[in-house]
Design brief:
Layout lengths: L2 E4 L2 E9 L3 E5 L10 H7 L4 E5 L16 H14 L6 E5 L1 H12 L6 E5 L7 H16 L2 H12 L2 H18 L6 H12 L14 E6 L7 H10 L4 E5 L6 H4 L1 H16 L4
Parallel strand pairs: 3-4, 3-5, 5-6, 6-7, 7-8
Antiparallel strand pairs: 1-2, 2-4
Helix pairs in contact: 2-3, 4-5, 4-7, 5-6
């Protein structure tokens, strides 16, 4: 992956495909690798940009606290550094929080946006989930943290059917896992997230997408987002959990592609 200086840090990114620019923005882990199931399909129609967020993957790990506003500044700097003209954005969870603020900050910046398994404001349920994940991260080996986190990401039937493949993949991820301090800072940032005051300013065509069985950001969070963002479209699929793009990849890709194609008037 090449790198570029953005907002005072070296950001590692990947660029593939051709066509209108599409940026995928990851969730809490912050790595470009999350979007591997999407790359082949979307790079046939788009210039796809994925990147490691600050503190994640091979991007710089600066000291100090993290905030959603800082991650928004980083992404805006990446768009400017790569001279991307009116890109599309797909943001998962924390990536969706970044997208909310970015679109509200500059209404003309994005051509379209998918907020997937995201939320407008942290609430008691959200904070209880991350209180548990925080405690697990502080008091357990990383191997236990990644296994515990998987229960928030995947539906029970997916874990049951795929445990033999999931477990080695989770253990392998520990080798490139962000430092504990980075994840703790990112957890603090998302627990502080509140975009309710700026959502009405968003003029970007927006799809709000989630799965009915998402226990980390339940469907009511997506409904609140769609109600607050002018003319946003809401789609709730029956199953898939918080990582719907992994567990129901074909359906996620089709819904997302159809929406983005409409934003850029693409054809199959």
């Amino acid at each position: 992956m090449p790198n570029v200086m953005t907002n005072g840090i070296n950001t590692h990114y990947r660029k593939c495909g051709a066509g209108p620019v599409l940026i995928f923005v990851s969730g809490l882990g912050g790595t470009a690798a999350y979007w591997k199931p999407q790359l082949e399909v979307f790079s046939k129609h788009f210039t796809v940009i994925t990147y490691d967020q600050r503190g994640s993957g091979t991007t710089d790990h600066p000291e100090g606290p993290c905030s959603i506003e800082m991650l928004v500044d980083d992404l805006q700097a990446l768009i400017e550094a790569l001279e991307l003209e009116r890109p599309l954005l797909v943001g998962h969870s924390t990536g969706g929080a970044i997208g909310q603020h970015l679109a509200a900050r500059d209404p003309a910046l994005l051509a379209g946006m998918v907020l997937y398994a995201s939320w407008a404001k942290s609430d008691k349920h959200f904070n209880w989930c991350f209180r548990m994940r925080r405690a697990l991260l502080i008091g357990s080996p990383l191997e236990e943290y990644v296994h515990g986190s998987a229960l928030f990401l995947y539906p029970p039937d997916h874990v049951r059917a795929n445990a033999e493949a999931l477990s080695p993949a989770l253990l392998a991820s520990v080798a490139s896992f962000p430092q504990r301090e980075v994840i703790l800072s990112r957890i603090d940032a998302i627990m502080d997230h509140d975009a309710t005051a700026v959502l009405a300013a968003i003029q970007t065509p927006t799809l709000v997408l989630c799965a009915q069985d998402d226990i980390l950001t339940p469907p009511y969070q997506s409904r609140l987002l769609a109600e607050a963002i002018p003319e946003a479209r809401l789609e709730i699929v029956p199953r898939g959990g918080h990582s719907f793009s992994e567990t129901e990849t074909a359906l996620f890709n089709q819904i997302t592609f159809d929406f983005l194609a409409g934003c850029r008037q693409l054809t199959h």
